[in-house]
Amino acid sequence: MHDDRTCQLLRAILTAAREYSPGPVTLDDVANHPLVRNLIPARPELTEQWNELSARGYLENFADSNGELRLITVKGRDQIMQTVDRDFFIWGRHGQPPKHTN
To answer: Which terminus of the chain faces fewer neighbouring Cβ atoms within 10 Å, N or C?
Structure first.
């Protein structure tokens, strides 16, 4: 599990992406969003979390942009709007723990 600050950064990235929707957003757009700037992430950390959000389906690549432009998905929007249970990956200890299957 990652720490609270990383969870804050994930939520800040998704919030920035939601505010640009329905249009696409770039990593630079996200980096300049006040919620992200206030966390002062190093560029490699921001890039890592940006890519992780995409890999987990919270963001998706915009057509023909080679991953430079991304859109927030319904899954990402639902987490920020809190219309579904809080995902443990996004909310950390404030979310729902993963369900164990036997």
So the answer is: C
Domains and CATH numbers, the chain: 4-94 (1.10.10.10)
CB-based burial label for 90 (10 Å; 0-12, 13-18, 19+): buried
C-beta separation of 30 from 17 below 8 A: yes
Nearest to 68 by CA among 19, 28, 20, 9: 28
Sheet of strand 69-72: strand arrangement: 25-26, 69-72, 59-61
pTM of the model: 0.87
